[in-house]
Amino acid sequence: NIFGCDATIPKLPEVTPMGEWNGMEMTADVAKGIMIGHLEGCGEASLEGSKQLDVSWKVACGANVAYDQFPSQNQLFYPSAKGDGLWYDPVFRVETIDGRNVWCKRHYRVRTGQVPGTFRFSVLDNGVTSDEFWTIVGAADDLSW
Questions:
Q1: How many whole angstroms separate alpha carbon 39 and alpha carbon 37?
Q2: pTM of the model
Q3: CB 121 within 8 A of CB 131
Q4: What phi and psi values does residue 45 have, to the nearest 5 degrees?
Q5: Are 30 and 45 in contact (CB under 8 A)?
Q6: pLDDT category of residue 56 using cuts at 50, 70 and 90
Q7: Phi, psi angle pair for 34, to nearest 5°
Q8: Each residue of 19-48: b (16+ CB within 10 Å) or e?
Q9: If pLDDT is split at 50, 70 and 90, which confidence band does 20 have?
């Protein structure tokens, strides 16, 4: 990166992903289906309960200061055309210092982790490559959250 910055993903706290969803063992396919959520057009990758909408999820609240700074977040997770990964395209509104509202998006590569229910996300963002580790710790059986 242009700034020479480097940071590793913290190993602690170690968060265990949920072991099952809707009575099914958590597998890589179930975990990907939870991430795909309600997005239409994903075929067999969609889980029962998907509402087949134009977004996977809408962010209502969260616990991450970096992400929670952006109102009106729409998350789109969809299967990769090649391989077993996913793509993640968040679309979000940024309130600029001068009061303007600007819509932005990113394009993340998502790889399944070694443990079902975990993922590695990577994205090039303004010259810096981000490498994130995500864990599914809960999801309603009807995908309402």
A1: 6
A2: 0.86
A3: yes
A4: -75, -20
A5: no
A6: very high
A7: -65, -45
A8: eebeeeebebebbbbbbbbbbeebeebbbe
A9: very high
